[in-house]
Amino acid sequence: MRVRKAVALGAALTLTALVSACSSGSSSGSGSSTLNWWTWDDKQAAAYKVCATDFEKANPGVKVKITQYNVVDYFTKLTAGFVAGKAPDAFQNSVQFFPQYADQHQLLPLDDYIKKDKFDLSRFSVGVDSWKYTDGHQYGLPLDWAATGLYYNTDMLTKAGYSTDDVQKLNWNPDDGGTIGRMIAHLTLDTKGRRGDQPGFDKAHIKTYGFGQLAAKDFLGQSTWSSFVSTTGWRLGNKANWPTELNYNDPRLVKTMDWIRTLVAKGYAPKLGTFTNTVSDVDLLSSGKVAMETGGSWTASTFAKIPNIKVGIGPTVLGPDGKTRAVFSNSNGNTIWAGTKDPDLAWKWVSYMGSEACQTKASATGTFFPSIPASMDASAKALKAQGVDLTVFTDMLKNKELYPSPDFRNGAALQDAIEPLIEAYFGGQKNDSVFADMQAKTKSILTQK
Amino acid sequence: MAVTVAPGPAALPRRPPRKHARRFSPGRAVAWTYLGGIVLVTLFPFYWILRTALSNNYQLATNPSSPLPVGFTWGAFERVLGIATTAEAQAQGGSGATLDIAIYLRNSLIYASVQTALIVLLSAAAAYAFSRLHWRGRDLVFNILISALMVPSVFTLLPNFVLVKDLGLTDTFAGLILPGGLFQAFALFFLRQFMLGLSTEVEEAAIIDGAGPLRIFLRIILPMSAAPIATVSLLMFVNAWNDYFWPLLIANDQSVQPLTLALGVFKQSSPQAAPDWAGLMAAALIAALPMLLLFIAFGKRIVNSIGFSGLK
User: Fold this and answer.
1) Where are stretches of biased composition, namely Low complexity (chain B) (predicted)?
2) Which structural domain, as residue segments, surrounds residue A299?
């Protein structure tokens, strides 16, 4: 008897599932007045809710649904959505995946809308060109911009005998490290309290590293080596956009990488693998494991909230000439899916997100830097009131020290090919000859159709 | 029923005196130390999860090796259960993500239980046909089916996805459940091996009494296989409960997303950002809790059933 009941129950459950499946299937198919927008950033998902509310008020009957997936799953989910015909109407996009999606005709060109609405692209101070594809179409509006700066533990800096002013004009060269090289050595402490430049310093027992994770697998070096080598005039691509190879074998980069290896060998910066990949810049500095590091502008507001530690922000280093500063900057974009049921509404939302009104409101939390200068000023002001000084970054923008990251094809394949080689180099399994291999690889990957 | 009970051993060996059992010996000490060490090593990660879940995410970074929660708070659990506001969550360094846990819990329950019911029912029926019924080509068909065990699931992922998409079943429970529910080589294999070992006398007696194959299956084979079926059910339920990738591909709509997928928002939001460790650990605990309860309730049964060999 019990068996029969169990079987009946099982069959009933299966039927219920099928029925409810059918009903939920039909309900999600209709409802064109719901606009789906996706982002990978939980903080921006929260920040843009303000815009969504305003947009819904201005457009009765429209509901904006903001969904966030963590970055590891985000692009998998998007691709699955493209294939299944269930991608969001509009979504935050990264330059790394943009060319691929444009090639697959998954993105809606915005040119006609821009022309029709007389939407002025010059309102954005950065990032517009990153979202123009090789076919001449504009596929996205820049959502934000990011830079990097030097974050330091103010207490450690003062104890080492430096003032915060000293950090404002540090210079660097790949031969002896310049003033920042000396500062890094002095900031490093072993477990017995001896500094990196003092006799008896024990590099096997480090309490605090002078500088953060420079020996990392990051293939763009955005928050590691890029702000150093860029001061020498080196650029990642052989062309500003759509490069056909990346300049890994340039002597300037090779020398920079050598300098990083010597820093690590002396115990001034952590070895590759000392901290796992999941340990973030925020964790490193907050825990007192490092005294200074290159960090993204997006972490500025986080550091301000960490208790019991005062973190200062300085600009990235000046180059060997003592006056050049160059910082790699990237802009995420807002793109519309070609398969959206209501492209007009999607454009309405995307263009509203690209307005000063929305950008100013959403960026007040400081979780991203808007690409519209007036909104950026408002955001910087709002954050200043909360004790976060963004002057370092806004100055970089004003002084034109930022240069945009190049758009290139096959970003994911490139990353998969290059990162193991960088790891092998910093791990000591490969020497300088690896850079020629890397450059050759980028050539074959970037020119692949 | 003609069940022959094997005669028991003539006499139980006399229990050794208690004193003897308690006596200290170096071997015993080593064994206990080893056991204690293993228990500690096994349980410590769970403690660390709990300790992190009860910490304030901002303060956590300042004292990562503290053995106790840093800045004790229930905030992470409140975030996971969806009772903290976004502002509260962000004030503690949490993810700004909000989630409606009741819906996800319901989805997970439907997904895991319906899939388990399907697997058990279909696998048991198939196992019966492959073990107790005699038909031409039986072993060949079985071998072909069982070779599916050798195919890594990543290979079937894409065809399954395309099929489900073409059937228009994305964003539905049917799309979630059917590919995994209709065929599980392991469950089939496991149940068939067990049923092969069942004695034929009971079955023959039923045939003499006039029972057909269906009746034999429902009335005799199924009840006799209760223990392995319980084991398979439990394993399949846990599997479905923990499943992440398939729902990730199929379920876009909140109404069908299981808990595992929803809790993914606590993972690293962007490549260089610090994840909400406290939220992530609280989420992991909450997601694992039903499984933990299941094992506490049925643990003995699982262990027993693994050693269970039926009538021999």
Assistant:
1) 1-13
2) 148-329+409-446
Helix B101-131 to helix B138-146 angle, to the nearest 10 degrees? 150
Q: Is B121 on the interface with A (CB under 8 A)?
A: yes
Q: Kindly tell me if the per-residue pLDDT of A31 is higher than 80.
A: no
Could you identify the residue written with the tokens 């989420």? B283
Number of domains present in the structure of chain A: 2
> B234: domain CATH number?
1.10.3720.10
Same domain, A156 and A284: yes
The verdict on a CB contact (< 8 Å) between A13 and B117 is: yes
* pLDDT tens per residue across span A361-409: 998 877 788 989 889 988 888 888 888 889 999 999 888 899 888 888 8
pLDDT at B85: 73
- Residue among A58, A34, A126, A73 nearest A331 (CA): A126
- Secondary structure (H, E, C), A215-268: CCCCCCCCCCCHHHHHHHCCCCECCCCCCCCECCCCHHHHHHHHHHHHHHHCCC
Within a domain: B23: no
**Number of structural domains, chain B?**
1
ipTM above 0.90, yes or no: no
Instruction: Tell which of A4, A9, A42 to mutate to test the B interface (max B CBs under 10 Å).
Output: A42
- CB count within 10 Å of CB A213 equals 26
Q: For position A22, what pLDDT does the model report?
A: 39
Instruction: Give this prediction's pTM.
Output: 0.78
Mean pLDDT to the nearest integer, A201-213: 93
The secondary structure of chain B in percent helix, strand, coil, rounded to multiples of 5, reads: 70, 0, 30
Average pLDDT, chain A: 87
**Nearest residue on chain A to B113, judged by CA atoms?**
A13
Stretches where chain B sits below pLDDT 70 are: 1-22, 93-99, 268-274, 301-312
| B209 in a structural domain | yes
- CA nearest to A28 within chain B: B253
Residue A382 lies in a domain: yes
Q: Does residue A36 lie within any of the structural domains?
A: yes
Contact: B121, A278; criterion CB under 8 Å: no
Cα(A36)–Cα(B74) distance, integer angstroms: 32
Rounded to a whole number of angstroms, the distance from the CA of B103 to the nearest CA of chain A is 14
Asked if B272 and A280 come within 8 Å (Cβ–Cβ), the reply is yes
Give pLDDT tens digits for A304-327: 888 888 999 999 999 999 889 999
Domain assignment present for residue B42? The answer is no
**Pick from A146-160, A214-228, B35-49, B270-284: least confident:** B270-284
A110 and A36 in a common domain: yes
From the list B169, B174, B264, the residue facing A69 with the nearest CB is B264
Query: The domain that contains A53 carries what CATH number?
Result: 3.40.190.10
